[in-house]
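Work Package 3 (structural annotation) set out to generate three-dimensional models for the target panel prioritized at the project kickoff. During this period the team completed the workflow that converts sequence records into discrete structure tokens, so that structures can be stored uniformly alongside our sequence database. As a representative example, we reproduce one entry of 191 residues exactly as it appears in the project archive.
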Amino acid sequence: MTETTRALRSDAERTVRTILEAAERVLSRNPAASMEQIAEAAGVARTTVHRRFASREALVDAMAAWATRRFAEAIDAARPDTAPPLVALYQATANVLRVKLDWGFAMSRALSGDPEVARVHADVDVRCERLLRRAQEAGVLRADVDPLWARRVYYALCHEATQERDGDPEALATRVVDTLLRGVGAGPGLA
């Protein structure tokens, strides 16, 4: 590959990223926004958007795929299989919340029919459950807690945390992990 080819490919990748980021901003504010509005926000011609994405649906699918890759990278960066479980749980939470806050529109579309998106989410489910089992073995989670239930509660807490659109991912991660591990009650439980 020549230097010119690499430069052109790099420029095309930057353009696509700029369009995806602009589309996230625009569609988060107005889900009915037009391709023209997205092009304007990206600082490119409408024809450039149409050249990269054949339709609005193709653009939204590309956004979901892009956000899903960032989501998987966020999990990987937390080293869920090797870092101490509490550290990995906190870091994965902060990383994932950052992606979900930055890519909220796209992540809400990430449950599309795209097999790659589905594969990434299934892999994340397995890795999360494995991390929660490690946390149990380390005494971070109670031994009597079902890891599948813990995962579902954890996901619900993460979802609720992302409802604070301007929230700080680090502070929200602390709140999510603290609530998962200690709950919100002040006294002894029922069991």
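DSSP finds nine helices and no strands in the chain.
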